[in-house]
Specification:
Layout lengths: L13 E3 L2 E3 L5 E3 L6 E2 L15 H12 L4 H14 L5 E5 L5 H9 L4 E6 L2 H8 L6 E4 L12 E7 L5 H7 E12 L5 H7 L16 E15 L2 H9 L9 H4 L8 E14 L1
Parallel strand pairs: 4-7, 5-6, 5-8, 6-7, 8-9
Antiparallel strand pairs: 1-2, 2-3, 9-11, 10-11
Helix pairs in contact: 1-7, 2-3
């Protein structure tokens, strides 16, 4: 298991009943759902930490309908290819744990820590009862010891390459999924007068060697307004869009859109 560490002093954390304690005496209680909050609130500027409950529940519902199943299978395939059966894995920005729990099922002997800055997301991840260690924390300050991981997963999560490099063992793998330029252009086309492409998917973290780049493209056919709204609400676009533009989606019952992903696999040198 990637060893959790104290966010205050960096020392290893040990289970003492329902509490985690380090050698310096800092203590962190486990919530009744089993996760631990290791977020140093003074380390983040925003009062709202990560995705709110509506965004988390929209994404959970949408993902469980299988729309991103091809991406899920690709990620599980790459984890199995590059990780040993007993791999130590951290999902940096695990959200509500849909990808994380599936990776655990595909590698049942692995040890996985899921980290997200959103407490609401971690609560939903805990409900999956997937045998994960879960912590509320920022990806820019991952609460695990140096060189304690064989794989870092980063799926549509903020980049923190220095932290990824720190927690990976030499020869470990960073598996990162990002949207390609045309990803979800359909909702943008429906909402915006001048829809825009995503930035090009170029990723070259320092101290890593690119060993594989896998692209995945297919068409999503959304068959209800509920699914259309869930997709839009689980993205940052919803919160950056005015009410007038948001309302354009309310009358749509069907929508086709491009799904386009790139999965980078980098090896730590």
């Amino acid at each position: 298991m990637p060893k959790l560490c104290c966010p205050k002093c960096g020392e290893a954390l040990w289970d003492v009943g329902k509490t985690l304690r380090c050698a310096c005496g800092h203590c962190y209680d486990r919530a009744k759902q089993g996760y631990v909050n290791l977020l140093m609130s003074n380390a983040v500027s925003s009062k709202r930490h990560g995705d709110d409950k509506e965004m988390v529940l929209s994404r959970k519902s949408f993902l469980e309908k299988g729309y991103y199943e091809p991406l899920l299978q690709l990620i599980c395939e790459k984890c199995a290819k590059y990780g040993a059966p007993e791999a130590d894995i951290i999902d940096a920005g695990c959200g509500e744990g849909w990808y994380t729990s599936s990776v655990k099922m595909s590698l049942p002997r692995s040890s996985i820590v899921g980290v997200d800055i959103s407490k609401e997301a971690i609560i939903e991840a805990a409900k999956r009862r997937a045998g994960l260690e879960l912590a509320v924390a920022s990806v820019s300050s991952l609460p695990v010891m140096d060189e304690s991981c064989d794989i870092v997963l980063s799926i549509f999560a903020p980049d923190a390459e220095s932290e990824f490099r720190r927690v990976l063992r030499k020869g470990g793998y960073l598996i990162r999924a990002v949207p390609l330029e045309e990803h979800l252009f359909g909702p943008k086309r429906a909402v915006y007068d001048e829809p825009y492409l995503n930035p090009p998917a170029n990723y070259a973290p320092e101290g890593f060697e690119l060993v594989e780049r896998a692209e995945l493209r297919y068409t999503l056919s959304l068959q209800s307004n509920e699914d259309i709204l869930e997709l839009f609400k689980m993205t940052p676009y919803y919160y950056k869009t005015g009410r007038e533009d948001q309302a354009k989606l309310l009358s749509l019952e069907k929508l086709q859109t491009e799904a386009a992903f790139c999965v980078f696999i980098h090896k730590k040198l």
